[in-house]
Amino acid sequence: MAKRETLSDRRARRVRNHLRSAGRGRPRLSVYRSNKHIYAQVIDDIQGVTLAAASTLDGDIREAGQSSSSIAAATKVGEVIASRAKSAGVGEVVFDRGGYLFHGRVKALAEAARTGGLSF
Q: In this structure, is residue 20 part of a structural domain?
């Protein structure tokens, strides 16, 4: 029996397919947001390789002493992913919000990545 697809899975797949056509070979900055944490990856879809990753589970972000589900933590993850992507040689990405609204923690991560040097 086939697994039933949830609405959030369909929404994420729809966004991802649109980004593949609009991205023109640029790496994808993918965001996953759970209730407690936020994760970000820079993915090269052509080679199928993760170039850089950051989350609120990283040691330097956890040591800051703030809640991992806050906008401040998402801002810190955005800064870290931008610096790691720059060190990996990535300057331009396409932003994959994964079906989440561009609001709150997702928006804070995106704006921090932009100020960190990533352009999208």
A: no
